[in-house]
């Protein structure tokens, strides 16, 4: 080989090698083949994203001071010139736009908000714009595919006097979705949140969380994840270190004069938190939670977290609210005669079902709210029917419901419930009539296994149904979408 030919040959080999490494490098972080054959990118990638947060609660001003470091990778398969975050506390800034019902403001309207004090990406200060709950960060330097991203921010959140999933009442601070959260980018499209008077306006990927929480010592805390250690400071405050892996969100509840009942039921650590004059009910809740978890584990597959917690909180507007490994139930359930026992157990079974459909397998709750709500209701009915003799709903009543309606196209809370809950559960009961219970369980096991710790869409689910049923199901799907 002469010298000239050698150089040409070396260049060709070099180009082939570079192309191969670029291709395999992208493959490591980006494409995930879904059941419908589409290739999609996960950003922020659940395997590569960590939140490290420091929190300090000032009780006197009801202000939570936060610092957040998000370590992730540009796994979206393209360059990034902006990042979007959700700051849910900003939904409570204006009286006219708050999602909380009027009776939740127990002493008149009281504002809540989140303010970013500093924001840096990869060590460079970043400009940002706010619109409702949305924060758009305009990056000074384009982020290249597969490169590390470090977001550092300091912020403070005002906690309103509000009996809601974000708010405080009687020394109890209910802090759902309280921190800036990096939104999902999928196939070049951001899944951004907006303020909605009903439903859960969220779509997030799971991440690993390390959180330290600094509280006055008279208060206790309950959160997603596990307390790793705690330190009593000389200044009358306590610091807790918490770790939570593969959490769809990190929820924090700060309590005053609460009682914990912790018990192992069938090998699972279950905890119930009630105001301390309501201890009687805790053991029944723990026992029922254990039975419900056991039923779902045996039907769907294993529970995704190391423990499960139920907390009764002063919350209006919802019977229950789901977070990763932790649920809130409204405290009225503790009053004898306020609700019947079956309503309480149904709500418990519905919220526990969300640990599989929402926490483990996520969905865009704005675009496809029926996907988790319908399934959680169907699973709760299955449990109630098998264990409590509960009668099943009449699915003929739901004919004509269009499950593809997005949250923003629904005109009332009633319409939201009729579509996402009643229409969603009817889809599953109808599917059971078409395919039989055994086949529907097979579909669910396959759905939960394929999309474990990812986000699934209606399209993904329908593809799995057709794959398991071995037939074209358009005749059935056309009734619902
Ligand atoms: Zn629900």
Describe the protein's architecture and organization:
This protein is of the alpha+beta class and 481 residues long. Among the domains are: 50-256, tricorn interacting facor f3 domain (Immunoglobulin-like, Sandwich); 370-477, no CATH class. The protein is built from eight helices and 25 strands. It has helices spanning 3-29, 280-300, 341-353, 370-388, 413-435, 437-450, 458-469, 474-477, and strands spanning 31-33, 39-41, 50-58, 63-73, 80-86, 113-121, 124-125, 127-131, 134-143, 148-158, 166-169, 172-175, 181-182, 184-186, 189-191, 207-216, 220-223, 226-232, 237-247, 252-255, 258-265, 268-275, 307-313, 320-323, 326-330. The chain has an eight-stranded mixed sheet with strand order 7-6-10-4-3-16-19-18, with no helix packed on it. Strands 21-22-23-25-24 form a five-stranded mixed sheet, with helices on one face. Strand 1 and strand 2 (39-41) form a beta hairpin. Helix 4 crosses helix 5 (413-435) and helix 5 (413-435) crosses helix 6 (437-450). The radius of gyration is 24 Å and the shape is globular. The N and C termini lie far apart (66 Å). Mean pLDDT is 91; it is low at 14-39. Bound molecules: zinc ion.
Give the overall pLDDT as a whole number.
91
Cofactors and ligands? zinc ion
Globally, the shape reads: globular
Would you identify the regions where 5 or more consecutive residues have pLDDT less than 50?
14-39
Please outline the major beta sheet.
8 strands, mixed
The level of helicity is 25-40%
Query: CATH superfamily name of the domain at 50-256?
Result: tricorn interacting facor f3 domain
Class per helix and strand makeup? alpha+beta
Strand content: 25-35%
């Amino acid at each position: 080989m002469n010298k000239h030919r050698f150089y040409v040959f070396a260049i060709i080999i070099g180009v082939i090698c570079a192309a191969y490494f670029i291709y395999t490098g992208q493959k490591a972080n980006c494409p995930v083949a879904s059941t419908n054959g589409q290739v999609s990118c996960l950003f922020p990638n659940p395997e590569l994203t960590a939140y490290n947060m420091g929190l300090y609660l000032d009780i006197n001003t009801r202000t939570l001071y936060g610092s957040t470091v998000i370590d992730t990778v540009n796994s979206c398969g393209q360059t990034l010139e902006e990042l979007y975050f959700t700051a849910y506390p900003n939904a409570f800034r204006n009286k006219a736009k708050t999602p909380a019902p009027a009776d939740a403001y127990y002493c008149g309207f009281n504002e809540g908000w989140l303010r970013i004090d500093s924001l840096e990406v990869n060590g460079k200060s970043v400009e940002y714009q706010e619109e409702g709950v949305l924060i758009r960060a305009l990056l000074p330097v384009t982020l290249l595919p597969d490169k590390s991203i470090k977001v550092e921010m300091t912020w403070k959140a005002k906690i309103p006097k509000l009996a809601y999933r974000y708010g405080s009442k009687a020394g109890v601070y209910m802090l759902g979705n309280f921190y800036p959260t990096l939104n999902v980018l999928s196939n070049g499209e951001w899944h951004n949140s907006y303020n909605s008077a009903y439903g859960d306006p969220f779509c997030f990927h799971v991440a690993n969380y390390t959180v330290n929480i600094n509280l006055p010592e008279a208060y206790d805390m309950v959160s997603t994840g596990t307390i790793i250690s705690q330190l009593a400071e000389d200044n009358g405050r306590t610091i807790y270190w918490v770790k939570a892996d593969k959490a769809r969100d990190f929820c924090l509840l700060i309590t005053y004069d609460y009682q914990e009942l912790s018990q192992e039921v069938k090998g699972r650590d279950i905890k119930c938190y009630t105001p301390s004059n309501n201890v009687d009910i805790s053991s029944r809740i723990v026992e029922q939670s254990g039975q419900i978890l056991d039923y779902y584990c045996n039907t769907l597959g294993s529970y995704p977290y190391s423990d499960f917690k139920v907390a009764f909180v002063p919350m209006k507007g919802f019977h229950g609210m789901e977070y990763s490994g932790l649920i809130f139930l409204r405290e009225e359930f503790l009053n004898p005669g306020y609700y019947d026992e079956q309503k309480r157990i149904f709500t418990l079974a519905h919220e526990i079902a969300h640990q599989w459909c929402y926490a483990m397998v996520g969905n865009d709750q704005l675009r496809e709210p029926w996907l988790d709500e319908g399934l959680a209701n169907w699973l709760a009915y299955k449990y109630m029917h098998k264990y409590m003799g509960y009668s099943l709903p009449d699915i003929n009543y739901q004919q004509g419901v269009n499950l593809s309606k997005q949250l923003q196209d629904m005109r009332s809370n009633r319409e939201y419930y009729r579509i996402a809950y009643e229409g969603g559960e009817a889809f599953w009961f109808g599917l059971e009539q078409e395919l039989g219970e055994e086949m529907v369980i097979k579909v669910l096991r396959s759905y939960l296994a394929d999309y474990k710790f990812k986000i699934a869409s209606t399209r993904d689910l329908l593809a799995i149904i057709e794959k398991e049923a071995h037939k074209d199901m358009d005749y059935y799907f056309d009734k619902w979408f």
